[in-house]
Amino acid sequence: MQENQPTMPQSASSQIEGHFKQVPGGLSATLRQRLDLFAQSGQQALLAQGLRGIERETLRVKADGALALTPHNPRLGSALTHPQITTDYSESLLEFITPAEPDIAIPLHQLDLIHRFTYTKLGDEMLWSQSMPCALPQEEQIPIAWYGTSHIGMLKHVYRRGLALRYGKSMQCIAGIHYNYSLNEKVWQVLQVAESISGSAKHVQSEAYIALIRNFHRYSWLLMYLFGASPALSTSFLRGRSHNLESLSSDTLYLPYATSLRMSDLGYQNNAQDGLVPPYNTLMEYMRSLSIAVRKPYAAYEKIGTQHDGEWVQINANVLQIENEFYATIRPKRVIRSGERPIEALCDRGVQYIEVRCMDVDPFEPLGISLETARFLDAFLLFCALDESPQTNQAEWQENVNNFAQTVKYGRQPDLALQHQGQSVSLQAWGLALLEKISVGAHLLDEQLGGTQHASSLQTQREKLLDASKTPSARVLREIKNSDNSFAAFALRQSKRLADEFRARPPSSDEIATFEQMATTSLAEQAEMERAQSGSFDEFITDYRSRTSSEICCDGVAT
């Protein structure tokens, strides 16, 4: 977005006030004052700036829907150094990463190009259209991602070996959409001056993102209702583990009102992580919790050990091997340098953006996420950033956790009630009230972008709240029931349909040449890393583990 956006045709203040009047009960004083501040100062264009990017995970499968066990195709480039095409946990689990841009439509266009190019190299394989995995082979057959023999590449591989031992390989094959979001840094500077907030610009920005995260935890149940798309899964996925799911057929388990089993206690849950990061109100508290977790031994992991027959099998035997092992629905983030730990980057340079991690892959969207959904996320996150965000405590934290858990398992249940400040409230009523508050910022975003895309997205979400049958999770269940009650049959049919659509739209010769050059460059970069490195991997990993001190220093404050 450019700074020289056209001004609103009427007085900014009166137009904002007009939006306020549409909100039953009014907005919080904080949100009202902040939106009015940007409107009156003529800096409302800042709210539509910042950067957005997407990371999309997707399994490679064979024509029959079974997991593809082939290695990552070198014609796609190096999974270690390619900026847009890599792997996540497994060789079979691709991850596509878009550049970050002010208008999310641009990353979505790039994501489309990545998909279309990838299909030119997949042969008979295709991309799985679901968050929950396809039919998986025995655990030992699922290939762990390989990144070559450089120290950094081996560290990534050993980390994944550790994940396999701690959580099982099947759980690591679940796919999702990660949405990266930031506001223009000038937003925080404007607020710092207007609200007389003390501290460095880095500190103010970091704490503002932590406040956004507090609000996200308060309201993220809404995202699960609106966009959850994993109400069912293959029976074989649980590998005989106990569960409370119902049988839809011999090969499919589900919960009738579930929105996202991916984000339920069947997903990324582990006793070692229970209570790992307690309610936090500052970046320092967050970093302290993670710093302790990567240094605190865990008995079950100590029994495994870090090496078997001279080979590393996990980075350490602590609660977390690295900070990113903490399975959060949202994370404060900073772009890290090669070999740098995430906590080092946050401490040194502060929070740069947030990463939303709870979004399911939408199986009806070729890219796993639509532009309409992304427009809503932008409006939702702007609301979380600018609304009042009082400090949290254990009681509210537990309330937030319970609301999220209720929604992912029972979100479409008629008259489902959540808890808000200790009081029972209808999910539908609360959701509709939130949409009215979010709508004010959505109108401002539309005024900068031109058109009504954000407001239209909110209307789509209202319809879902008024009629649960319009949610993605309800649609998924209808399609499964129309596929002989088989999740696998529905998912395979949908994956084939989307594959055909991508293959019917191959990139241009110039676009293919650009991606092929990126692949060649990335392979050369990996080869150079392997050639130029010095010292042993044992020395490298020992140094890496040592760089999480018992003391964390940020903005000159040690703890």
Describe the protein's architecture and organization.
- With 559 residues, the chain is an alpha+beta fold.
- It is built from 18 helices and 16 strands.
- It is globular and about 65 Å long.
Entry summary:
The strands form five sheets. Strands 1, 2, 3, 4, 5, 11 and 12 form a seven-stranded antiparallel beta sheet that branches. The chain is an alpha+beta fold and 559 residues long.
> Which band does the percent of strand residues land in?
5-15%
Distance between the termini: 40 Å
Structural class comes to alpha+beta
Kindly report the average pLDDT value: 92
Helix content: 40-55%
**pLDDT < 50 stretches:** 1-13, 19-25, 553-559
Q: In angstroms, what is the radius of gyration?
A: 23 Å
Number of helices: 18
Keywords:
18 helices, disordered N terminus, 44% helix, alpha+beta, 7-stranded antiparallel β-sheet, 3-stranded antiparallel β-sheet, 11% strand, disordered C terminus, globular, 559 residues
Layout of strands and helices, then pairs:
Elements: H1 12-20, H2 29-40, E1 51-61, E2 85-87, E3 93-97, H3 105-119, E4 126-127, H4 151-167, E5 177-182, H5 185-194, H6 201-219, H7 221-227, E6 232-234, E7 246-249, E8 252-254, H8 283-293, H9 299-304, E9 307-308, E10 311-312, E11 330-333, H10 342-349, E12 353-359, H11 371-386, H12 394-410, E13 417-420, E14 423-426, H13 427-449, H14 453-466, H15 472-481, H16 487-503, H17 509-532, H18 537-546, E15 553-554, E16 557-558
Antiparallel strand pairs: 1-3, 1-4, 1-5, 2-3, 5-12, 6-8, 7-8, 9-10, 11-12, 13-14, 15-16
